[in-house]
Amino acid sequence: MGLATLLVLADGRLPSGGHAHSGGLEAQVSAGRVRDLDTVAEFLRGKLATSALVAAAFAAAACERPGRSPELDAGFDCRTPSPALRKASRAQGRALLRAARAMWALPPVGREPHQPVALGVVAAAAGLAPVQAAVAAAHGTVSGAASAAVRLLGLDPYTVHALLARLAPECDRIAATAAARAGDPVDDLPAAGAPLLDVGAELHATWEVRLFAS
């Protein structure tokens, strides 16, 4: 089932640029909406139900049929109303492809695909199944923000990882739901939105001093 390969792809130490992004958390911390472990948990659950679901569905679809990547990329762009978030997603997609080309032979995928689309194409090249691509996407959506929470709020990393462990079943459920839609037309894929993340991303992009790129 390629579990070891999945671990390589989902490893936070993979040099794909994810450490430079907070998944929108920095803006929400600044606004006072996220301030402790309980509100981090609420933030991560919200991301699982929205952006993680969308990312997992697009990663699974790109893994199932990498040749659809241009169409999927356009579909994901339509689901990302914030220019700042589109820029961040494409930057992470570009960095992921650069790292992946050192490990696997990749098909043509375009110059700067969105990160979930790039993830799906890379997962297919690594021999993974769509559901595994979806797991990597969903897990990455919450684990990146959780790691940022440790830095932004000075939280105990042990308690933050305990939170990730509690969220793991929900992460698996989201991934399974997303993977079941992998063969759907692009327009029918999940399109759950999080307006506060969009607004926060645009405000965050104007800051002169910030810890994370997004």
Automatic annotation (TrEMBL):
TM annotation in the entry: none
Primary location: cytoplasm
Pfam name, any one: UreF
Keywords associated with the record: Chaperone, Cytoplasm, Nickel insertion
Gene3D superfamilies: Urease accessory protein UreF
Compartment(s) where it occurs, according to its Swiss-Prot or TrEMBL record: Cytoplasm
InterPro entries: UreF, UreF_sf
Family note: Belongs to the UreF family.
Complex and partners: UreD, UreF and UreG form a complex that acts as a GTP-hydrolysis-dependent molecular chaperone, activating the urease apoprotein by helping to assemble the nickel containing metallocenter of UreC. The UreE protein probably delivers the nickel.
Biological role: Required for maturation of urease via the functional incorporation of the urease nickel metallocenter.
Protein name per Swiss-Prot or TrEMBL: Urease accessory protein UreF
Species the sequence originates in: Paractinoplanes pyxinae
Record lineage: Bacteria, Bacillati, Actinomycetota, Actinomycetes, Micromonosporales
